[in-house]
Amino acid sequence: xxxxxxxxxxxxxxxxxxxxxxxxxxxxxxxxxxxxxxxxxxxxxxxxxxxxxxxxxxxxxxxxxxxxxxxxxxxxxxxxxxxxxxxxxxxxxxxxxxxxxxxxxxxxxxxxxxxxxxxxxxxxxxxxxxxxxxxxxxxxxxxxxxxxxxxxxxxxxxxxxxxxxxxxxxxxxxxxxxxxxxxxxxxxxxxxxxxxxxxxxxxxxxxxxxxxxxxxxxxxxxxxxxxxxxxxxxxxxxxxxxxxxxxxxxxxxxxxxxxxxxxxxxxxxxxxxxxxxxxxxxxxxxxxxxxxxxxxxxxxxxxxxxxxxxxxxxxxxxxxxxxxxxxxxxxxxxxxxxxxxxxxxxxxxxxxxxxxxxxxxxxxxxxxxxxxxxxxxxxxxxxxxxxxxxxxxxxxxxxxxxxxxxxxxxxxxxxxxxxxxxxxxxxxxxxxxxxxxxxxxxxxxxxxxxxxxxxxxxxxxxxxxxxxxxxxxxxxxxxxxxxxxxxxxxxxxxxxxxxxxxxxxxxxxxxxxxxxxxxxxx
Length: 522
Description:
Mean pLDDT: 87
Strand content: 5-15%
Number of helices: 23
């Protein structure tokens, strides 16, 4: 206990004397916009997941779980894979690399250690490396070296002339103004430099490991060292940090370094882009290998035709004790029914996440999977917006219009939960039938709904399935739900016999009028 306490007390001191790359990495917060920057600045011709699908399938918490102990570099590359997917050639190459890493645990551990400097990056640099042009320095930037000389001369006048203080004040004023005007910009740039230095440090460590996988790092070792030196803080400031502030305030060293390193970075952007993509790709692969090593239930995903889907004992990786469900579709989509809280939405999210993982990483959370590498689109969490002035039904209509506009080019898979719940029953069923028929003619559609009459109307387009919980664990069975539990749940919430009885009476009356669609609807 005493040894542990002393270790905790001395850790800040011992960390101070460690090389920066050996210190415990910080845990900086990155916004979703920063994590998605690489995806945004390197557009892909493949259809990417849109923002609502990303939100509806809960891919942000999945990504956070996947990328624990991963730097911003690896996170950005994994995000781009999740959003845009991989083609068949890229998927095969990734699968081969992952198999090699899974068969060599010591190599994974060595790579993790070499990649550790990346986690010291506290700002993203994809925007800097992949978009924009180098800023032109202002004309006065070439003459900042004059300011400290003027200050030294003014100090001589201060010692020899009665009014020398006025000259000193005149010399100090522009230096102070320069620091006030440029402090935030310089500090932000210093964070960028620290991230680039972390990238270069990791590249140097990877080059030292050697091996066929790391040949690009070995080949770039000399240029890597030169650039690392050009971007490093002056040796005096590294040896005696307190001196840096004085030199910045009275010699504008930080402003001169700002423009000098800015020029060096933009001159080496092609080189830095290559190092970025190589290091980020390697860290992403190591992250996936570590992830798979900790799983008991996963498989490599096979590729199928666009309207064929086979998922055997698929689970959702964010659930602690997920129920494994299987589904097989060939040509026609699925109409999913089930009692309240039976897991219809979870099933759709499970299918959606496995589709995304299969096209992004080549594996699934299932016993066996054969899935198409097609765009995935979801409509599951439409809400009314007070600030946006949009009702629930209008948000559902907007999303349905987006799905219709996007479908068919290329063909994809649509996951829809509780379609058109924001209007009355008759118009909800009528609108849903028309929209789903149009979608199903072009895309593979999986839809869940409590409006069971839709199953009959859409029988030619969608196969009926129900989530059956009678055996305890949910299971997907063919057919339509026969015993809904919405009214039965009134009793569990204490509504009383009078309300429960009246609800059952109205339900029987409605069932006689609405349960069977008229023949001409078909």
